Amino acid sequence: MSEIAVIGAGAAGIQAALDAANRGIKVHLIEREPTIGGRMAQLDKTFPTNDCSMCILSPKMVEAERNENIILHTLTEPVSLEGEVGNFKLTLLRHPRYVDAELCNGCGDCYEVCPVEVYNRYDAGLGVRKAIYKPHAQIVPNLAIRDPEHCIDCGLCYDVCGREAVRHDDEDSEEEFTINVAAIIIATGYDTYNPEKKTELMYLRHPDVITSLEFERMICASGPTGGKLRKLSNGEKPRSIVFVQCIGSRDLTIDRCYCSCVCCMYAIKNAMLIKEKNPDTGVTMLYMDIRAYGKGYEEYYERAKNLGINFVRGRPGEILEKPGKGLEIMVEDTETREFLKLSPDLIVLSVGMQPSKGADRIAEIFGIKTEDSGFFSSPEMKLNPVGTIRPGIYIAGAASAPKDIPDSVTQGEAAAMKAFLDALKAGA
């Protein structure tokens, strides 16, 4: 029977791979990062149930690794594509791990002795990692990776590894190879907007103005602060926190007119987690509109209000730093016409979704189109929301538009069935 490829191993990509594999199709699950899991692996809890994110995702990751019909390709990305539906020739480039995947058992001895510390991208820059590392404790596959850019070649990791799994630079190199597949699912996910470009928000100019993703890592029990709320300026517990919505969404000044769908709900979720763990902490949310559109979302919003979270309909023009007084926000409550002066200890910018890095290149390689927003285009959104202009190429999850985890998983399942049918026809 013919094989299929899934590009991107986040929530949508893993679900698509599992659905196809469980129907007897061989699946190549391709991920450019060292581990599968995507953005969902960085989250603490998920709305509207407040379930542990990794408690849901980790079993899926392990299942994908153990499924005999799924071949994992981490540190790998597409280079070119030839052929047509039922007979694609996909060329891939595998980047070096500088660790032997056959010998490494993920014990961690190598990064315990490594003297180099750099910012950990998985922790959104709040935590640190070593020059040889695992992005987080529950990675799949459970293998270390060495970062040659920051490695000082001290030799300690080579000496401590009893299995001699750590490779030197000249022992590992990029590898280009091809696979033949009947259909391809693109589930490359999203990136978050960088609010550094909006200087009036003080991001990276004041340590107590952080993004929602950084806040996710802060409140996570496995994060760099052990789940404890902290002001980055002095390490103290914040007494008041303000969430500012629609950063990088619904903003014509930066050509992002679309809504990112999840920002209202993940901010409400994080606000609720604060009140549940720290009921004395004041929490205010500055919003344009609360868009609680999904099943159980409106009830979730009502729960948040009952917990004492203060919702103010208004957007601040800028965030100010008052000498000796900390941060200050002036905002008009457009429902009461009242001007408010807020002096929070911590400000969380609810950043929106944007196309993942390299989306334009992916579109060029696979011969598909993108919308004006940069997300991949589906020409028949009503009849075939996972389809593209090229037969046999499908899109799923946040690669096609901003969406939450349930919608991403549902679209992954739909794309898997489309690819499954293509594989059946090709193998007939």
UniProtKB/TrEMBL annotation:
| Example GO molecular function | metal ion binding
Name all 4Fe-4S ferredoxin-type domain ranges: 95-124, 141-171
Q: Which UniProt keywords apply?
A: 4Fe-4S, FAD, Flavoprotein, Iron, Iron-sulfur, Metal-binding, Oxidoreductase
To which pathway does this protein belong?
Answer: Cofactor metabolism; coenzyme M-coenzyme B heterodisulfide reduction; coenzyme B and coenzyme M from coenzyme M-coenzyme B heterodisulfide: step 1/1
Q: What is its EC number?
A: 1.8.-.-
| Cofactor(s), by name | [4Fe-4S] cluster; FAD
Q: Establish whether keyword ATP-binding is in the entry.
A: no
Q: Which InterPro entries match?
A: 4Fe4S_Fe-S-bd, 4Fe4S_Fe_S_CS, FAD/NAD-bd_sf, HdrA-like
- Which EC class is this protein assigned? oxidoreductase
For this chain, the family text in UniProt reads: Belongs to the HdrA family.
Q: What is the annotated quaternary arrangement, including any partners? A: The ferredoxin:CoB-CoM heterodisulfide reductase is composed of three subunits; HdrA, HdrB and HdrC.
Q: What does this protein do?
A: Part of a complex that catalyzes the reversible reduction of CoM-S-S-CoB to the thiol-coenzymes H-S-CoM (coenzyme M) and H-S-CoB (coenzyme B).
Q: What is the protein's given name? A: CoB--CoM heterodisulfide reductase iron-sulfur subunit A
Which species is listed as the source?
A: Methanolacinia petrolearia (strain DSM 11571 / OCM 486 / SEBR 4847)
